[in-house]
Design brief:
Elements lengths: L45 E2 H7 L5 H9 L3 E3 L2 E2 L5 E2 L5 E3 L2 E2 L12 E6 L29 E3 L7 E7 L2 H8 L7 E8 L4 H9 L1 E3 L2 E3 L3 E6 L4 E8 L6 H7 L5 E9 L2 E2 L9 E3 L2 H10 L14 E3 L1
Parallel strand pairs: 9-15
Antiparallel strand pairs: 1-4, 2-3, 2-5, 5-6, 7-9, 7-17, 8-9, 10-14, 10-15, 11-12, 13-14, 15-16, 17-18
Helix pairs in contact: 1-2, 1-3
């Protein structure tokens, strides 16, 4: 009987873990003298939707909708599509001040975190349970954004980044990014059940299926499978198995899109993508134009 999780067959980076962790409020201008934004001047900075998407406030499309709904003001003037923002500008969303300066251009960082069971993917937990963000290095000018979620009982690969636009692209339902899991189930799984799970079954929130199911190993009560899904519905993998009265005793994500959990990355540890790996991830997300020349060297931490 094999109780250890299987190793993904995709190419894993071979890394060795090491030990880890580790203003004055701007004043709004006088509305009577607020200047109109001239978007023809290239020195006026970046488009607002690009800056806010980078900071994880929302996707560019969402922010463009907010602009159309007159929810954004810059220096006391309603923002229009194409408006740029630069140092010293005063930004409000729904009449609340947003300190947007921390979202200015900075090197993109992406971490592969090996989440253990028992941790929750949130910044603060009212029940006092451990949260993943306390295990990550501090950022001075931005914040970590989780690419998708893992529930408290699911372990494995969690991507986090300081680039909100990258996170939005990797999570958006239209991208249909593959998520691969190693699953340990109890008991025999008849071929008819496998066939139903691949063809699709009705869940409470609509029809769902596994894109792929592969038996890995197992004797006696425990059986290991690899399964792949292309959507991020809450607890989807567990709910699909449970719809067939199959008990999942362990669940571990081993891949998200092209990114694979490194074999030697222990729980509570993270690995930071290097420049070449970031280029490949940006290409996968359709963000080839980003400047990645000033990326940090790769690091593994635990």
């Amino acid at each position: 009987m094999k109780n250890k999780p299987p190793t993904s067959k995709t190419n894993l980076p071979k890394r060795t873990p090491t030990s880890a962790k580790g203003s004055a409020k701007p004043q709004p201008p006088d509305p009577t003298t607020a200047r109109k934004i001239d978007t023809a001047d290239a020195d006026l900075g970046e488009r607002i939707q690009k800056v806010l998407a980078r900071g994880g406030i929302g996707s560019r499309r969402e922010i463009e909708r907010w602009i159309a709904e007159d929810r954004l003001k810059l220096n006391g003037v309603a923002v229009t599509l194409g408006t740029h923002i630069k140092a010293g500008d005063y930004l409000q969303i729904n009449d609340r001040v947003l300190h947007w300066e921390k979202f200015t251009v900075q090197p993109t960082r992406v971490l592969l975190y090996h989440k253990p069971t028992g941790e929750v993917v949130t910044r603060r937990d009212p029940e006092g349970r451990p949260v993943v963000f306390t295990q990550l290095p501090n950022l001075t000018a931005s914040r970590w954004i989780a690419v998708g979620r893992l529930d408290i009982n699911t372990s494995g690969l969690l991507l986090v980044t300081n680039n909100g636009e990258l996170a939005n692209r990797l999570m958006h339902p239209s991208t249909q990014v593959e998520r691969e899991y190693a699953v340990r189930v109890l008991g025999e799984v008849p071929d008819a059940v496998i066939e139903r799970l691949e063809q699709g079954v009705e869940l409470e929130d609509g029809k769902a299926k596994f894109d792929d199911i592969r038996f890995y190993a197992g004797e006696g009560a425990n059986k290991w499978y690899y399964v792949t899904v292309s959507e991020g519905r809450n607890r989807l993998v567990r709910r699909l198995w449970e719809s067939q009265n199959i008990v999942v005793s362990r669940l571990m994500r081993v891949r998200y899109g092209p990114v694979v959990l490194p074999e030697r990355l222990k729980a509570h540890s993270f690995y930071e993508l290097d420049a070449k790996e970031l280029e490949l991830l940006f290409e996968f997300a359709g963000m080839k134009g980003e400047d990645l020349r000033h990326q940090p060297t790769p690091r593994l931490k635990n």
